[in-house]
Amino acid sequence: MGVVPVQHRQALEGVEARVVDCRRCPRLVEWRERVAREKRAAFADEDYWGRPVPGFGDPRARVYVLGLAPAAHGGNRTGRVFTGDRSGDWLFASLNRTGFANQPGSRSLDDGLRLDGAFVAAAVRCAPPANRPLPAERDNCLPYAAEELGLLRPAVIVCLGGFAWDAACRLTGVRPRPRFGHAAEHRIDEGPVLLGSYHPSQQNTFTGRLTEEMMDAVFERARALGGYGSSTDSPSRR
Question: What are phi and psi of 164, to 5 degrees?
């Protein structure tokens, strides 16, 4: 895919730095920091991140994966979105099977995970109470995703759940909002394709509403839309 210009990497790192320092939403700041102090018993000996969680992945990515928000004891603990929680286990396993990730799971920042062709982020960068951000909190956070999209210029945005689908519609100026559904597609003139997927939450995976085959099919479709070809051709699968 070629060498990534230094200026491009620096611009993405600049977005990351601004995300990590953000304190725009008092309710989210109070919650994320309280969770980091009180901790969950299973992680009592760990130092929690307790800050906004930036996006991460391949700076050349043609596929942008958008989730809802970091989990209180997942990304808010580890410092990387979808890392250290059950939803992330499901997501990274699928990304690995479809050639976007070099390993099927992620437990910490230094576990060796690398993404090839994909960049993963969340519509809201702080863990929200009850996993429910307020509309104002979403709107405060979306400019960060807008900056990432402006730098990456992906061919497809994979929206994990209805909240991410709505956020992607706002980011790309799509009106009226097309109906969300698993494997739903909406093409934007001179812009990315919005590709829907049910969120890999336990509510969906434990009930069978979302299966491994369903999620893999979405990411295989994302590969095709991104111009990457079959997952068997990916360096992550060799």
Answer: -65, -35
pLDDT, averaged across the chain: 95
Give all domains of the chain, ordered by start, each with its CATH number: 6-237 (3.40.470.10)
Span 51-87, pLDDT tens digits: 999 999 999 999 999 999 999 999 999 999 999 999 9
In this prediction the pTM is 0.95
pLDDT band at 2; cut points 50, 70, 90: low
> With contact defined as beta carbons under 8 Å apart, do 70 and 53 qualify?
yes
CA distance 73 to 86: 10
End-to-end C-alpha distance for the chain, whole angstroms: 17
Residues 163, 123 contacting (CB under 8 angstroms): yes
Task: Tell me the CA distances in angstroms from 166 to 75, 130, 148, 157, 219, one per residue in order.
Answer: 22, 19, 17, 12, 19
Give the CA dihedral 57, 62, 67, 71, nearest 10 degrees: -10
Which amino acid is it at 133? P
**Three-state secondary structure call for residue 61:** coil
Where would I find the H helices in the chain? Answer: 6-20, 26-38, 75-78, 86-97, 135-152, 162-172, 202-205, 212-226
Is-contact 158 219, C-beta < 8 A? yes
Q: Mind listing the pLDDT tens digit for each residue in 192-211?
A: 999 999 999 999 999 999 99
